[in-house]
Amino acid sequence: MNQMTMITETTPVNIQHHTYKRECRYTRGVHIPLLDIENILNSMSEDVIAYFEFHNIAKEIKQGTFLNGYSGLATIISDYYKRKKGTEILELTNGRDFYVKII
Predict the structure, then answer these.
(1) d(CA 48, CA 71)
(2) Taking the CB of residue 96, how many other CB atoms lie within 10 A of it?
């Protein structure tokens, strides 16, 4: 199986979390192509989309957008890449906070 690694930042990435009304700081993340994130979002149930929007309300899904990651999203992304791309993303599902950058 192919492997993809998390990106470790030397300077934290700050991403606005509108629901919590604060910025979240991340030192690790994953860069995902726009087509893949669109496919991932299109495969989500209404309940899962609602939780995604809780963490990423008012975020445009376009190249260059940074999203707040959470454990459920980590599992969904990991499963998508294993199933569709034969790729494992190392350390994504270890429970640590992360961001997603759409490329």
Answers:
(1) 12
(2) 14
- The one-letter amino acid at 26: Y
Pick from 16, 40, 15, 41: which is nearest to 27 by CA?
15
pLDDT tens string 16-50: 887 777 899 999 999 999 999 999 999 999 999 99
Model-level pTM greater than 0.90?
Answer: yes
Contact by Cβ (8 Å): 26, 69: yes
| Confidence at residue 90, expressed as pLDDT on a 0 to 100 scale | 87
74-84 as b/e: b if 16+ CB within 10 A: bebbbebbeee
Helix (H, G, I), strand (E, B) or coil at 91: coil
Using 50, 70 and 90 to split pLDDT, how confident is the model at 5? Answer: confident
Nearest to 28 by CA among 103, 99, 101: 99
The alpha carbon of 103 is separated from its chain's Cα centroid by a whole number of angstroms, namely: 12
